[in-house]
Amino acid sequence: MQNWCGGGKLVYIAALNVLGALGVVLLHANNVFWSRPKGTLWLSANLIETFFYWPVPIFFMITGATLIDYLKKYSTKVYFQKRFVRTFLPFIFWSLFACAFSVAYQDKTMDWNILHIISNIFNTKYLQVYWFFPALFSIYLSIPLLALVGDKLRAFRYVIIIGFVANMTLPLLCNIVHIPYNSQLKLDVAGGSLLYALTGYYLSRTDFSYRQRMIVYICGILGWLIHYFGTLIASGEQSNVVRMFKGYGNFPAFIQSVAVFVFCKYLFAKHQMSEWSQNILFKFSSLTFGIYLIHRYFLIVMLKELSIDGSSWMWRFCGAIFVFFLSANIVMLIKKIPLIKKAVP
After folding, report:
1. Lower CB density within 10 Å: C or N end of the chain?
2. Whole-model pTM over 0.90
């Protein structure tokens, strides 16, 4: 069923990478959401925020789908070497770049104490969007154990179901009815971003009937609607965004992300792409990590230097698409520079 192209690469995984990177840029260009605006601006900001809430969970799913079977391709030693070069080194490089950017461009006061710098890098204080890295590292450290699991689909299905109920659904339901949730009931093995990695592996290797897919899509739409209207209702007339329905650890985000993953998997299996289209898709897919790393700087600089209204539709939609393609071109340029090309693997 799965649609492969040359080199054993899955087309839908590449498509999810590209769509996810674009979604991240759209989310960050919609930063006005967090100022809790009023009127129609609040409605549109919440629409963008909730509709494009799935990219980061999708990236975690892709990690599980593509890496948990790494032992079929190389050793654990090679696995960690690849992760070190492809993610840890870029994390350090761009964290230091973010530090320099905050001092040189944003005029922030710099504490040159080495422990303070290490703490800021470790806790992603220089650029908050890099919080993604520690979450990714926790998945990487767990994968060698997951790779040794025998009957992965059955074991992962159990963990996914229990984790979904105990870690995502019950806490939100208790929050809605104002009952404290006993955190001891949470399943640690399905905690944080790891549940998404397990889910990505399971979804990528499981075939779903038409009826099952329709159920998944309906659940995904319901997840988005719960997130959208739940945030509207919970925030009410307050001056800040109430986060009751937000968070990747909440079930609305989970079922929406599952629906997007399954939809793309079957869309690209059903509709064959031309070789030219595949080449374009995989070219952009190879740039998505770099786009994630650098797009935020363009958003900051353009808003300031061009005096752009960050609440306008033009900026939040057209501006985000422009920054996406601008970042892609800059990443292609960086990849051609020998000294720093490893910073955008």
Report:
1. N
2. yes
